[in-house]
Here is the input.
Amino acid sequence: GIIPTGTEIVEPGTELKIGDIIDFNSRTFAAQVSEWGGEAKRYGIVRDDFELIKQAVSKANEENDIVLINAGSSAGREDYTSSAVSELGELVIHGVAIKPGKPVMMGIINGKPVIGIPGFPVSAYFVMEEIVKPVIYGFQGLETEADKVVDAVLTRRCMSSLKYHEFVRVKLGYIAGRFVATPLARGAGATMSLVNADGVLEIDQSIEGIEAGTVVKVKLLSSEDKIKNTLVCIGSHDPIIDIAADLLHRKNKKYFLSSSNVGSTGGLMALKTGETHMAPTHLLDMDSGIYNTSYL
Here is the structure.
């Protein structure tokens, strides 16, 4: 049973007001549950009201094996989920040392698991993958399938906090017979970082960061074939790169162009160290007034 909560959450197709957020998390959860062998039942949006949330959780608990409550698990004036679970059963965990996904809540009501999932999309994704998926597989008497992992060279230093086990989204390329991994934006609300990611680098809680050039284990989100057919472009941003990427894929669906904007100098360094296929530059020689040539 999937319960979306939040006064600001509205159904798709609703005329939007300032502050409204279209509910898509619950539909994503339903698709994931179905993919993992479960039968998803999505309930209507419940506004931030303790009694309404409590009633919805109680009803879903009666009708389902597992209850997933979206939003309402982090600390806040109108986050009533943990209180509702505590009244109806036992609140077992509220907050775990993972990032993104820290505010997750887990409880038991009538012997059935109830999981409160953060509202930020990236946090929600990792909670579903790392916590909910094993629970659903366990109900079926199955073990989760092994992740496909590759060794990759980290292109940039990746700092982390000792407080969390962190999941870093990365863009992968295949250059000179090796995979290279470039970290993407890391905010819990940075949805496009998940869309654009080819893999996930996990940084253990005991590690403050990983230096550039280190060989790391990356869990694949894209196929190896796609990564090996991707032209990697790191350097200064130029709109023509985005146009070229679109035209390349239109011309041949097999090939892709991936760009990461780190500035001209960063691009040249990536080219020098074999971390990119090409590097757009916009470096002006102040003496000659000519771009790029003197630097090369």
